[in-house]
Write a structure and sequence with these properties.
The chain is α+β, with helices and mostly antiparallel strands. The longest helix has 12 residues. It has a four-stranded antiparallel β-sheet. The relative contact order is 0.24. Helices cover 17% and strands 25% of the residues.
């Protein structure tokens, strides 16, 4: 990936954003978007033109697994 791991304005990314179906209409949540075959962008759903963090699929899967296991 040739881009920075942090994107200042996530609305400029050519991705389709989604959030968990478990998120309520007024919940604090994050949205994800597929950047390419190896990277996912993550942003605050309340600030769609705010920054996004771009991480590898494996890193995101490890973090979600650790949160689910109560390790984070």
């Amino acid at each position: 990936m040739t881009t920075s791991p942090t994107i200042r304005n996530s609305s400029t990314l050519p991705v389709s954003w989604w959030k968990s179906s478990a998120s309520g209409a007024q919940s604090d949540c994050v949205e994800c978007g597929i950047v390419d075959a190896d990277h996912i962008a993550v942003r605050d759903s309340k600030v769609p033109s705010g920054p996004a963090l771009v991480v590898g699929r494996g890193a995101l899967a490890a973090m979600v697994g650790a949160v689910g296991a109560g390790l984070l």
